[in-house]
Structures
1.
Amino acid sequence: MGKKIKKQTVLPLNVKPKGLTKKVQLPKDQNLTIKELTKYDILFKQGEKNVSKTSDFVEVGEDEVDSEEDDYFKNSSFLKSNLTDDAKFQKLSYSKQLENEYEDPKEKSKAEESVKQLKKRKSIDDDEEEEYNELEEDEIYNEKSDDDDDDDDDDDDIENERENDENKREWKLETVVKKRLPIKTHDGRMKTITQVITAKELKETKEKNEKTKEQLIEQVTKERNAKNKQKGKKPTATPTTISKEVNKQIKDAPQKKQKKKDNDESSDESDTEIENLDVLDRDIDDNEFNDNSKSLNSNKDDDFSKLSEGERYLKEQELIENAKMSLAKASSLIISNPENNIQAIKELFSICINNKNIVIKKYSILSLCAVFKDIIPGYKINKDLADEIKNGQTSADGAGQPKQKLSKEIKKIREYEKKLLKFYQNYLVLIENSISNILSLLARKVPNTNGIGFFKINGTNYSNNDLTSLLQCILKAVSTLLITHPHFNFRTNLVTITSRFTVYKDKDIAMMCLEAVKSLFEHDSTGGETSLEVVRCLANVAKSANYLIDPKVVRVFLAMRLTDVIEKINPFGFASDEAKLGKKDRKHLTRTEKKKRKEDKSLDKEMKEAEAEFSVKEQKFLQTEILKAIFILYFRIIKKAPNSPALTSVLEGLAKFSHLISVDFLGDLLKVLGDLIENGITSIANAFNTNITAFKTIKLHGGSLNVDLKDYYVRVYSLLTDMVLPKEHGVIVTALDALQLMLGDKKQTAVERVASFIKRLSTIALFLPPHASLALVSFIKQLFITYPQTQRLLETDSTFSGGDYVPEAQDPDHCNPFASTLWELSLLTNHWHPKFEPILKRILSYNESQMSSQHVTRERSPLELYRSYDNSKGGFNPPIELPKEHHLLGKMRKLKKSFKNREIQVFITPQKQFEKSSFLNQCQQQTSDKEIQKQNITFDNYFNENKDFNNQMKLFKKLENLKNLKSRLDSQKSQKSQPQKKNTKKILNTK
Amino acid sequence: MRPMTEEESKTFFEKLIKFIGKNVTLLIQRKDEPYCFRIQKNKVYYVSEELMKRSQNIPREGLCSLGTCFGRFTKTGKFKLNITCLDYLAQYAKYKVWVKPSSEMSWMYGNNLLKAGLGRITEDTPANQGVVLFSMNDVPIGFGVTSKSTHECRKLDPQALVVYHYGDVGEYLRDEDIM
């Protein structure tokens, strides 16, 4: 492959990063000083004007990075592997070489040589390497940020390129999507994408749906008219500009041809491509004019203007519905039998491109994505086949190349694969173009009319909202494809797009991409290759954003699944010992042996591809590389941007992966962390994470020497009080982990220090939510067991100590904890939470003899306590218990049973000097409260009811008697009966 | 008994700072009680002000000792720390070295500490730094000066010197008569 093609392939990427980096930096402007801002502005302007002059591949920032790095890590291990040291260059890990490839122009040629050598040696397959190369390459192009508008400059570029990298010509770039790929139709003629699509579309519309076509035309004409009115009737403007461009490109073509003589391989192909390009532009013109003329002929303009807004809306809806229907038809057709009906994808493409309605575009993009998701096979399409496609028809016709005889079925499958790959390629090209167009439109710039996207730039004016939603749609498609088929061809493009948009200013889009990356890390079916690419890409993105990135982006790495096969990492050292050993072995080989070896290797490689499984060795290599890339990013952030918001997640990541850092790196790591601890750390979470890293590594690699990390204790101790702030409450899990590492080991720390930590932790526990303070209390209990001497804190008398307790001291060694007592614990015994009391009682009743017999393992760990009693979501955990039953109540129930539910009378003599017990209260309530009595049919109620009934009956009889008496005496003694009557009434009322 | 002259206090605090760094201020500005340094017969005493005021009633010749002795000035004007100040040094020590039980006795007989006896050391201790030595149970047993930094200590062979002897608790027995 020649560089011209490469140039073309890379072009679509060129514009994006510039806009992107700018955008990325903009929201973070607050963090930058004005000086820096102006510097950036100047840089950008320079970049836009003079890019082409900076033709070599050196990126200034890149050089700076490494020189600084040298200064920074001046400790032993890094010096050993000096990057610029020629002699040791080859010993460096493979990826490191690749990474540094372009950092130094002098080194470059050497690097390439060594890459070539390595290529021969390394057992990884070529594709992977090339993808790495491309990755690097893309980045460089991006950084160069050249401007495509200047065609003259382009030529200079091309020349420079040729001078600069003769070697690169060998690199095959089949995995990068080529633009404007020619499509071969059944009659063998070459057609460009749009040609095919339009032809198909016309046929389809004629055959299928006359109505939709009319509507389409109406729509188009309407928009076109509107546009023309706006532009003041300049319909010829577009064709002229386009023709200009065409002319330019035609001009370019012969120049390119001249250079092409150097490399014969690619000449034909790039020729055809350029022609295609021209044809393509013309095609667009033709289409539009066809549309125009048709609509003019039909004279429907007048009708259209008459339409009311509502009708227009309805028409639009109808249009969308129709489009939906046809999309669904085509998609289901493809999915029902992809091998036969793959041509139907063209329909989807045509719907997408030829509709102006943004909703239809979105639908079609997504349905295309869904279709591809379903029909993409579970394997990577063979390299040869991909080559074949790239080389166009010449090789397919078998011009001079003897072809293997294939059976019919295989031929069919191959044919299908070829088509699929082609369509997929086209899809990706469209995606890339439209992303770049959208970005430039959003930045209110005139997009370079470099490629056709999903929409025509000169068409209708889309609003910002529309563009963003379309962008979101496209990225959704990209990320879905990346997640579901990371093994498939062209994943590099997907990876680049996805990782670039993780730092996009629009939060929704960024989150979507992050989610995609995360799930990719979690279920990487390629055994880590894709993850590695993503990690590297993200590192580049972070660099271009000056490491001022969202902590969420860096936190994504935590989702990485790393197995045990991984080896310990020294991020700036050798990849492994294998490389060194292998080199020695190889020296003994003769030429013939070498040849044989080569053959064996290529055979092995094919076999491996067929296996489609990842050997342990491969996995080990990949994961080591991934981890190394992550660590390099981490340390760059710590070193270059310690004020970056991402520092939190960096420290989290270090804490998580700290067990994988190799012993050689111990000194450097401790130095970096020490600097951080001294002045970089301001939040308690960061302090804890740093401590976890430091203590873990020390514990793993400290070896014979037992060091006391005093500074780390001091920092955590002084920041510990921050934990009471509500925003820091979530840190408790990390805190427990860190504290366990710091203090949990037996006899690692001075008793005094432990005691001051205990004192401060118990003070904090008073202010925390119950589950957190419960965890702390239980941790304190563990400390009491590990350090029995600290139990002096629990004694109130005869405690010797010089001076007073200094609660506000910064240093745990100076606060004199034994002058105080743990009054906090006795205060916590009154906590409403039911679980405090048992734990605290156990602590407070400790003494030496009990301690030895105590089984610590039996009890729940602080973390378990924290988790099980978590009530951060509200409510009570554990739930509130019902009050306990009074013991007399149980007795009564027993009695009742033994008497077989006969009536019993219970006599209670309440004692006045005590408060009423709950039992008595209940009994009294039962006897007094009639409402409740009626509902509850119990023994008591029955008894009371009976009694009442009898009373009432008695009273009733009395009343009757009295009434009789009254009637008798009424006439004689009216005064006598009245008081009696009153009496009876009273009695009744009281009852 | 008199306060120190400027020259005296300079040499004295320089020596003290070598062991406890900035924490010297904590010695003087105590929360509970004001303390001060006084010289009596070439010896420097750390004494609470109340005690100091009371002792002013005793004539200089008759006053044998007061407060805690921190050390003495030699005839040449140098200051030498005494082991009696160990409690305060231990409390405020910036860098600490823990001694393995096997080497404790050797240290307390006045020998230098070897790498073999090094139980634990504070991270980032520089060379030629005053350190306080502890037994593994955190009992202070003396003080000395490091010969190597922590980082260098990692690669040292067991017979190499790590801490030069300066003072140890064995002096309480050995030099009982001159204390």
2.
Amino acid sequence: MLGKQISCAMESGSTQFFFLIDKLRIQLLNSIESATEKDYFQEEISPFDSGVGLQMSSGHSVTTVKSNCLASVTKFAQILKILSVIYRLVQSNSYATKRDVYYNNTQLFGSQRSVDTIVDDISCMLKVSRRALHVMATSKGLIAGDLCYLEEDGTRIDCRSSSAAVSVSSNVSGIRNIVSSAKFVMIVEKDATFQRLLNDNFCRKLSPCIMITGKGVPDVNSRLMVKKLWDTLQIPIFALVDADPHGFEIMCIYKYGSVAMSFEAHSLTVPSVMWLGLLPSDLQRLMVPKHSLLPLTRRDENKLNSLLKRPYFASQPQWQKEMELMQQSKVKAEIQSLADIAPDFLSSIYLPNKLRYGGWL
Amino acid sequence: MLQEIRQVLRLVVLMSKQGRRHGSGSTGGLLILLWDEEAGAQRLNCTVAAAGSWCSGVEIKALQLDLKGRMFPHVSPSLEPDPEDLIPFTELHGSLRLLLSFQMKDARHWPSDWQSDVEAVLQAFSLANAGIQIHLKLKFAQKTSVRDFRAKIKAKVSRADQPPLLLDVSCPEQKRWFLSKPHGWAKRASWCQGGHPVDGGRLPLGIPPQAMDGGLLGDLSVRLVTLLHPCVLQYPNMPTELKSIKVLVYNPCNIPVSGPSGFFQTLPSSMDCQHLGLRGLQCPAHKDPEFRVGTVFTTEQWENEKKCDDEEQESSHLPVQQSLLLFLLLQHRNPFCSHLSDFVAADMLIEHHLEEILCNNKPAVMAAIRTEIGNAMKAQNQRKKQQEKLNSAAEVILSSTMSIVSCSSNVDFRNACFDLMKVADTHALSSHLGESLRRVMSWRFLPVGRCYSTQMEENLLHHGSTKSEI
């Protein structure tokens, strides 16, 4: 209903459009609050909470690492080493990146991945955020649009440059004084699409808005940033991902969280994220050229089957419909496939129409 | 005297092999009774009695005729032992299949430790014939001593192309050093009381011309079997070190033969010790009781170590000293041998020409021995590598833990750490924690199905509480 109103408002003028967007925002807030109230205090703790996302159930994530077992003794040593590093950082009130920790003793750790995993394990074990361990992740995400804020050290960040994006802060929790008149935030799956939109001046065309990308599977800081924007600005959050199982999964990470970080779900998930595109139904509707469509691989099908079994769809019947459509059609497409319709189809037609006429789920 | 005993054993074994019915067993008893007729007599009499399924094919009359004919001029059927000495034996093993008595040569010319020599031969015989319980009874100079040789734990080593072999794999008492001072970090730790023989297969041997000229014909081969003591399979992190290698040679009757010392003297130089991971091999000059039969080689590291009485040093820092027993079991087949005398002659020829036989096949025999020792060393070298990994990790664990405790300004936390480890300061904490950590790592216990485990007595250590905290 509201979507139709928005589409009519677009014809009459942009002021009305943004008024209705604000109304949508309020609706979303109300629905989330009611969902949280309903789900959060359930007697039975379930792994999925539509108001939060994937949460860690207590008592189901215990791993024993032995010091006298050859297979695990190195990990035992790595854990204690990282604990001692963290202890020093906390004591001295200084910070280090995970990369710094790795370079502390590359021979012991072997790979960056080992450090990353252990830092997450310690965070989960001590039931504190990673930030509390004084270990920061190097951010890989980018952000652009109508947004200004101050870093913890006082550095002023202005994301309004039309030509260049800003790296997501590595200390998101320290951000303050967020100033933005953006009406919505758009999460873009891929860096290529993000750059394309930046080059097309998308943020000015549909100003005021904010664009953010995690360059694929988002890192924790990118997720924290999206969460921060939602908590601070309370504006709609849209996701623009490829019409394939991998893209859908990435969107779900922003919305519902990941199993790996489920212990920090409350600080990372934004259940109000909406699926703007590229929808499987868009492929038919827009008559995307067949040569742009790719067949689903065996891996895609397996992932799709796995996704359909996830608890997300209980509260998202339209999403389920889209995934089933993908399953039936057995094809997938990247966002770039829209360029085969017209070079600037994405930024000039597809996205503006989607936003104007409520084409999100 | 040893020669006579060996001769009797040879005949009994050969006769039992010949006459053995299909499906008959390999268990029973053997009694060797050495006695003097009167006090102060210089000659000793020997009675050999056998009972059980292992000698079911023995015919006493035939045996006596053969013996009388060529081997034992002093065989005297009129010599009868005291029946009281036989009763316990028959009660245990059933009616006698063999009872043979003969007089020994003048005992004045025997070496002073002849008794130990006899025991050593019987002990070695028992190792490769574990189904036979051997009873040695000495009654002379108005003294009686009894010694039994029986296998507590037996293992059958069988291959399709080989006759089955029943070995005594019980861990010798003197090798179970750790049992007398159990560290027992695992309260219910159990020790494997035996060993696990490894069959190295059969190596064909060429018969040297001298032996052929003497009448030795047919197919000759040697079977290699190794046995490592003590077994520490259930302690995967326990470091081990090979202390000694004992080579026992058996004739085709499974009777241990002495020597050939000349051949085995060259063994250390034929082994690529560095490649094997051995710190040199040498043949000790002294003759401990353990070394009376067979050839024993000790590693250089063991020779250099002095026995340490310091309990501190005898902790898990020391690797477990293991000994490798290498059985060389000669096998002979000659389709033209049919009479008992042929088998006896062939057996004696093999013993007589053993040195030439082994020298004639030196490269192959040495290579086979090297392979068997190498296989035993593989496990040790693997443990060494694992130990390095554990030690490396232990250093990191210790330094990280000490870093936290040392840097902590929380008095309660520090005191709690000291109290738990029962130390007074960080210096003591560091050494105590390191020692405890190394013990926990080294004494990790994982039960192994094929080990012969018995439960240790529950060991309530004063260190028990520390172990649980780590």
3.
Amino acid sequence: MESIAKARKICHLLLRFLAFGATLSAVIVMATSHEKASVLVFQVEAKYTNTPAFKYFVIANSVVTVYGFLILFLPPESLLWRLAAATDLVFTMLLVSSISAALAIAQVGKKGNSHAAWLPICNSVPKFCNQVTGALVVGAIALIIYMLLLLNSIHRVLDPVIFRKC
Amino acid sequence: MASRNVEKLDLSFSAVPDKPKKDWVIVYLRILAFLATASATLVMALNKQTKHFVVATIGTTPITVSITAKFQHTPAFIFFVIANGVASLHCLMMIGVDILGPQFDYKGLKPVLIPILDMMSLVLASAGDGAATFMSELGRNGNSHARWDKICDKFGSYCNRGGAALIASFIAIILLLIITVMSINKLKPKK
């Protein structure tokens, strides 16, 4: 039984590290996406700070990165895992809302909106669009990992017998 | 004497066990959450505004073009309506399960399924909310970098009704969060 408990601990730590890495790379990829282009006679620069939705994505993912880094150091037997379960739930909600918001604005940027006379911008700045797409994909992976971690931490709080060494 | 004591013990153990106390607070909260999500869905789904613009004037007769703003034009609002609709159906189903609940036997996977479904509908409602919030912000302020004009100055009441649906959805998310925490708490084994 001890080997199973150890395997569980290693698996949990690995999952937390993966989640930390995923949110960190989402932040980095989105923050370094900028491209200059010239549309007609204007000089257009596309940065992530142009849209509040992308700013929200970067801020939300960096908050979750800091949290993910700090929780790697929590000893497995401490009583703070109840708080960790609650904060896991709140941060999962934050992640899902940020991804959904960035996805909505990115979809308008790619396809445009003919009813509101909004033209798509991805034709003029394709590198920026690809990088934003990459950041969103990594963010979606981070979201899935965080949902698994949420179920894990709720299980750990409610039924701690399995996590104790036999 | 000892046998009579044993008999007395047997009688007290064969008495009817206590009925589990019904938790009316969570049913009340679920009814409130159902009302909030249903009103968010309805207000956004019936959101429509038609405006007539004068495009040109030939002689003395003006040519008017009527433009309609509907919620189906934006995929973010379609997702918002679908997400809140699913959340309200889930709340309705959970109210039914809570009221008719004690008649069914809770064994195996069923007690765990309720918090999991609660969490899923919370996550779905939160996603729909995030998308619709930023889309309506784009409609209200426009985006000068991408040359996207704002539309709220022309379609004022469309934007206001969308804002009201968003506020109802925010209230629904807070209620769903409280409900999720309470139903997870119910899973705790009684000491």
4.
Amino acid sequence: MSSESNGPLFGKLIAIKDNISTGPSTPSLATTAASNTLRKHASPFAATVVRLLTENGALIAGKTNCDEFGMGSHSLNSAYGPVKNAYVRGGHALSAGGSSGGSAVAVATRQCWAALGTDTGGSVRLPAAYCGIVGFKPSYGLLSRWGVLDYANSMDTVGILSRDVPDARTLFRILNRFDEEDPTSLPPSVRARLSSADAGEKPDESARNARALRIGVPTDYCLEELSSPVHRAWIRTLNRLQDQGHQLVPVNLPSTKQALSAYYVLAPAEASSNLAKYDGVRYGSRLQDPPSHQEAEADKSGKSVLFSRYRGEGFGDEVKRRILLGAFALSAAAMDNYFIQAQKIRRLVQDDFDRVFASPNPLHTASSSSSSPKPSSAQKPAHEASPPQSTRSKVDLLITPTAPTLPPTIDDVRQQDPLATYTNDAFTVPASLAGLPSISVPVQTAGRPRSGAAADGDGGWGDVGCAGVQVIGQFGDDDIVLRMGEIVEGLR
Amino acid sequence: MTAPSNPTLRLQYRQLYQNSLRYSLLGTCLTHRPALWNQVRKSHTAITADPVPLRKQLKDEARRKKAEKKASPKSSKTLDPRLSRWELTVGLEIHAELNTACKLFSPAATSLNAEPNSHVALFDAAFPGTQPQFQKATLIPALRAALAFGCEVQRKSSWDRKHYFYQDQPNGYQITQYYEPFARGGTLTLTQLDGIETSDCPEVTVGIKQIQLEQDTAKTILQPPSTYLLDFNRVGTPLIEIITLPQIHSPTTASACVRKIQSLLRAVDACVVGMEMGGLRCDVNVSVRERGTTAEGLSEYAGVKGLGTRTEIKNLSSFKAVENAILAERDRQIAVLESGGEIEGETRGWTIGQTETVRLRGKEGEVDYRYMPDPDLGPLIIGQDLVDHLKDTLPMLPDETAERVVNEYGISAKDARTLISLDDGDRLEYTEAVVETVMQRLASLPEKQSFDKVGKVVADWVLHELGGLLTTAGVPWETQTVTPERLADIIVHLQTNQITGNTAKKLLAHYASLQPVAEAAIPSVSKIIDTSGLRLVPLTEGEYIEMAQKVMAENPDMVKAVREKGQKGKIMWFVGQMMRRGEEGRVEAEKARSYVERLLEV
């Protein structure tokens, strides 16, 4: 380990999303996941990713607000109140995106050099897109989850929010380590098979880096919800890449349409399980009010409602909504129709991606040796042969919009039906279901400068001048994703 | 680390990770306190408290059973006329704590009586942000258990979460193997010696449906009126759940089955904490059906058809409770059915001392456990090489050992079982050590000695003479001080006619009463014999003749019978008389016979 004083991150301020444990060495920083259930919870240990940061000289700037336990797309579901984007439209604050909205705003407003977030269905990429910064979600299993509070652990991924792609890469290289504390951390044997293992050293990799890339354009992503400024920004980006010599290939990802539904079955199912530990027996303070008459009666009959009352008061509405959804999806009567079906769709989504990517999925092609754990129970090793596809139609990367629209105002979001806000995740969820690396990079809309540095004349921030473009790569192709992110970033 | 914010739980978290636990393939990183007679004996049992010896427990139960039989005529043994109409069917689910150094998913140590909350890893307390780390070494005893029942070990199995809220379960779910258990399809054969119901004799075979690995919960200690203290030491301790097929048809046999499962688990070192210490717990599924009815319209379980509706009785913690709860539930179900009622599929409870099971919850109140594959844990892949290795090194099972001991030593099957079941096999090991020494000593003697009865003689001495002495004195086996060499020494002196049996017993009693002191300070057997003048002096020829003549003079009719009627069989009667009259051990039958024959002129 580098000593702190000359580490590559020496003196750099890094903000940490509040669902990542900061531990005792960073004093008086609670880890609450923006939930009342954990309001006073100070974790006795630091997450592995936080430890790696401080060991490399970084300073923990603080904890950032977020959606409670990462559940939300606008960072409004927090026990501490909503996160506000620095950008404003017509005097109305815009959504910062979620759930890592606090981390995104902290980076966008230069309160820190970079920040860590978590991304389960888009929670790093979406706020990055809304705040005009870079958000990178690495392949599942590369960054340790030890110390990261579970939401849906088969998809929970530590992500990086930064001002530009090189900074994201710097952090990724430091955090990309096997961690034996995390059972889903990819072991060295699997890491050795990934293309990003020795990036630039393998001859075929450097060749791929040098040559023009084949970019897949998923036609299925032209949803009706896709707004025209975002659509235009996406198309313009693609055109410029083509101008640079890269090749555009239309691809089909037919399962995309079911991906969102599958995600909103699987993620709540896992959440209902993961959040069962917050029952008031160990965490948080117990309720101070004396038990109601009804509770006293229930106590007498031996059916104590300690847990239900604590959970009812401790969790916010969205968390409760997802726990109920998930508990239903796992119930004996609904299991086959919801959870099992959603797992099948997840599999189809993975197959879709494997079919279009030129490089094989290193998890699926792995010899079924007993020593190679899979990142999740849902990602099964046995991979049926996909229908033959000519190599000509295979691609190195996919480029899509990150979010269907520019950030809505917080007022608009509040008017929305909770289910309607879920559609914000339509483009980010597929990569989460498949555990693929993806990055959101801001590109200008309508020729306006993208950075918040170009503020309004009166010192305030105007409307966001950019939309997020998402680059998705095959599992383990994190370096290629970062490289394309840098290329997109360089398009002016 | 700091304690969590809720002080009422008094949790103490320690740096458990500093304990460098080493796992060898055979899981020998365990501690054991060997018996005093051999402090260096190698062992692989992890018991830290003294359980009631199985033998004692069996005895106690037999005694209780006897007393109960006298007290109440309604015992399982008495024939209930209703049983000719109704047949009972029972299936068992047994939870047994595995003999492992650490927990199933954390490196925290397993413990029995440690200070509360002193062996709790972050994951065990369900700290936010922690994940399970499967401890490979826990597989060893689990696999041994599976092999002991002849189960097929599954190459791939998986982990599922079983959800329910209770304060003894910090994560809100238990990690178990619901969808894919690691072992399937074994059998267990019970014989008369296992104490099965007479109608089940000579033997009954019970199928094992599956064995799965899972986590134990915390211990809840109620402090009246309304305080619950939680000890998380037990959280995450590895358990196996053994599920039998519903192929048991008597309460006695069910209880014998649980007992045998415990002894098998102990024999292969898979589970060493018995039912009496809470190391083994049992749920039973009970149903009755009318004999001679067809399978139509009846329930089915795991391929066993034609069953009546079953009820489940949870958490039985003794062999006795298993038997009595089944008995009571059988009678209840028959009574309901005979009065035209229907059995409801429900969960029932049993309290020791009660005569009826109590309804806990019906089907509508059943908990939906919302089983979900654990997203943190990949599948469990078990290599055939490991299974083969464990199969090759599996200790002999009690039945096999009993057979060997019967064949080698010529003792009864009952004595063989007793020898094996006592003191975790220690008694058998001791016996074998004595036999070996006696054989060596006899072989080194100039005169040729007979070996065939040595095993039986030694076993009798260990079980009955030494065992009796210890029981009378209330000395537990672990602290007894007679070494195998000492007992062998006494037996050799006896076998070579240097002392009488009586003297041998007195010598043993003397040695058994000694306090543990340095071996050198204890006088040897031959020294005591010589200094106390205990050595047996053989009769002279004159003494033999004198004795024979005396017996003949007192019994002229017998003499006549031999001399005149040629009843040669009566010769041995004279020998017997002489043996009885002579000082113990001094009359040798062969010599006596030759003198009698000479004097009777036959």
